[in-house]
Amino acid sequence: MDKKIAFVKDYGAYLKVEKGLITCKIKDQVKWSIAPTELHSIVVLTNSSISSEVVKVANEYGIEIVFFNNHEPYAKLIPAKYAGSFKVWLKQLTAWKRRKVQFAKAFIYGKVHNQWVTLRYYERKYGYDLMSQEMDRLAREITLVNTAEDVMQKEAEAAKVYWRGVKSLLPKSLGFKGRRKRVSDNLDPFNRALNIGYGMLRKVVWGAVISVGLNPYIGFLHKFRSGRISLVFDLMEEFRSPFVDRKLIGLARESADKVTDLKTLYSLFSDMKEDEIYTQARRLVNAILNDEEYRPYLAK
């Protein structure tokens, strides 16, 4: 059975065990109630209370409880039996040794495919020529390469085409010349807004990776570096264009001035389709645990 992740999103919620079920309530209103056998983890997104009985049941059934502050994970209760996480981490290390290129190809194929979808959307709607067919060709070529270096080379080639297309979609008043990341590059408003969107996306993906029991520091595409959440950056690649870029391009074309308004930006990115990101994290952990093919998130 594919186990579920339960979210505690409402301020003042209280978790207790009732009739054998883990139940989330606000005063007398039941928000959700579920059998512990159906749960993989509980994600606590806001200030709430949890009874010791819930912690005891969670330990008994191997349920992990993850706590967030502003959508960024800060603590995780791992069942004392530890078997679930330990098994996942061992399999993740094995996959890193044997299937690194396979996973790297899947992440970047998903990224480039989704970039192609974004450009193709504007080509079809407005009749532009954004060279989306070149993105499609590069996405297919990614499936044929055999090394991580070749994957990254194809990603870099696709990025040149993609950001050139994005530039042509934006009002010239924004001064966007291409993708820049560092503040020291004297970023234009669109690049600053992209950084905000990617930052919010990173938090959600980080939470999803933690919640399914994966080690966020063991990535397949991004290399090890002290404190670097490499696997989070890997999984983020698939969501950048559909969940951040496309929204921001639409906002810029509609009203370029709003790209500099922080309230508008945080509102724009507040809906990151958490369910789809968590579902993709579960696909990733299942592919690792069962030695199955990993299928990236493909936008439509």
Overall strand count: 8
Query: Sheet with the most strands?
Result: 4 strands, mixed
* Neighbour order of strands in the largest sheet: 1-5-7-8
Please tell me the overall pLDDT: 91
**Distance between the ends:** 28 Å
Rg over alpha carbons: 21 Å
Family: Belongs to the CRISPR-associated endonuclease Cas1 family.
Binding site for Mn(2+): 155, 222, 237
Enzyme class: hydrolase
GO biological process, one term: maintenance of CRISPR repeat elements
In short:
With 300 residues, the chain is of the alpha/beta class. It contains ten helices and eight strands.
Description:
The protein contains ten helices and eight strands. The protein has helices at 52-61, 83-98, 100-126, 132-142, 148-169, 189-211, 230-236, 240-254, 262-268, 274-289, and strands spanning 4-8, 13-18, 21-26, 29-34, 39-44, 48-50, 64-69, 72-77. It is globular, with a radius of gyration of 21 Å.
